[in-house]
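Example 3.2
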Amino acid sequence: MKINNIGYNHKHDADFFVLRPEGSGDNLLLLLKTPAVFVIDGKEQHTEKNSFILFGEGTPQNYRSDGGEFANDWFHFSYSEEEKSLFEALEIPFDKVVEIGDPGKHTLLIKNMSFENYSSNLYKTDSIELYLKLFFIKLSEKLHSEEETKISSCYDKMSVLRAKIYSMPQNDWSIDGLAHELTMSRSHFEHTYKKIFGVSPMNEVINSRLEHAKFMLSTTDIPINLIAEICGYKSDIHFMRQFKSRLSVTPSAYRAEMQNQNRTYSAKRQKKGN
């Protein structure tokens, strides 16, 4: 991994812009200290300060000032095919603007890399390579620690909502409705829910309905079409298909199996009591 060019605490006027339709021929890391505007996949995106973007090799680079001074740290760099696994392991996103909060540690590392790059130090190439790896390791730590903090803060609210899903399977649940209950965007809600519970929200809804149906099938004689309705299905045919698809058995066969198990258990208890 090596630095091709680097800049620390560079400042530009309000008319500053960069347009590289074919990219820069290498990878580019921008650490933004002021708001900026990016054009990514043809869509304009306004970003706040204390954000970064990692442009991959060959990715078009189109960004500018957001009406005021443009200040940033940056470095162009290259890495080998063997070093590609480092970025995969660190899960640092490419070609996406990400807010990181206080960038103090990261801007200090860029300052140190810049000093080494323009120095005559004997081992500056080795030093820069170590600084680069440390920069991306610390960046990954920052990204994932903030994500874990956000998820942790959502856990209690998510758990309450999950209990609500299981206690009211008859509700006409939707992703938009569930996200609205927690005042979250649809995509953020889906991502966070699956991260916490390991299952998508709509699969959770299906699981809650099927669990309730299994309980009713094994403990009551309520007709299957009414069980479907009680569990939130608008069609008993849809219910039976989904039940068979998920459990590899029809509702009627499941009921018969559970009733048989209950009779066997009762007989054993009665025999033991005698």
